[in-house]
């Protein structure tokens, strides 16, 4: 099963620096060609369902199928919904546990004839895209993206430089993991109002800002589409804005990373 979706921003005309990104999620594997100067998708994105079970081999084949749809031969960036260090997968929350310990270059690159692949955490990719082209584009300093969904994903960027694999969703806040306190899934499960839920979100934001003093929070995830209903209710001191790129952020950030259009520290 496939779908295509028009880009949120019209593709500009003229010469373009192009990249390609694939965003791997628990339900879908989607990819597209990216204008690296504007962050806009060039043409439609293409999506295939995430195979079940989402084993390394099955997901790698699906990634290869998305790449083949575009006949893309250049640098390839792929997001992964977990921690990757030194090219090795360390966690697997929304995919098969067989991913843990897998070498992503061997698994994903091998499915495409051994070509080079850049793999990074999905929240990190979204953070890069939002900081460069989205809600954080006019802000310097330390920008923190938080994705509110089943859990809480995080990305930290300082003046365009990514600190990879932050896991702020697992911070302990008042005796409970942050994502068990303030993920949007908690709001839904407990049928909380926005007023009640944002009390918990505020606690998480305060814990983060007391530790690293960010200049801006960007709120992502599906609930960010209703940001006007809850962001004004937050009581933390750091400005909070809604993510702007929505479903294209992972694709754009992956393309940026593969093109070496960003600098990532460490691993």
Instruction: Using the alpha-carbon principal axes, give the shape.
Output: globular
Tally of DSSP helical segments = 8
List the uncertain runs: 4-13, 263-267
Alpha-beta content class: alpha/beta
Describe this structure in words.
The protein has 267 residues and is of the alpha/beta class. It is built from 8 helices and 16 strands. The protein has helices at residues 56-70, 104-110, 122-133, 178-182, 184-190, 194-212, 227-230, 249-258; strands spanning 2-5, 18-24, 28-35, 45-49, 77-80, 84-85, 88-89, 118-121, 142-148, 152-158, 161-163, 172-173, 176-177, 216-220, 240-242, 263-264. Strand 6 (84-85) and strand 7 form a beta hairpin.
Tell me the layout of helices and strands.
Blueprint: E1 2-5, E2 18-24, E3 28-35, E4 45-49, H1 56-70, E5 77-80, E6 84-85, E7 88-89, H2 104-110, E8 118-121, H3 122-133, E9 142-148, E10 152-158, E11 161-163, E12 172-173, E13 176-177, H4 178-182, H5 184-190, H6 194-212, E14 216-220, H7 227-230, E15 240-242, H8 249-258, E16 263-264
Parallel strand pairs: 2-5, 5-8, 9-14, 11-16, 14-15
Antiparallel strand pairs: 1-4, 2-3, 3-4, 6-7, 9-10, 10-11, 12-13
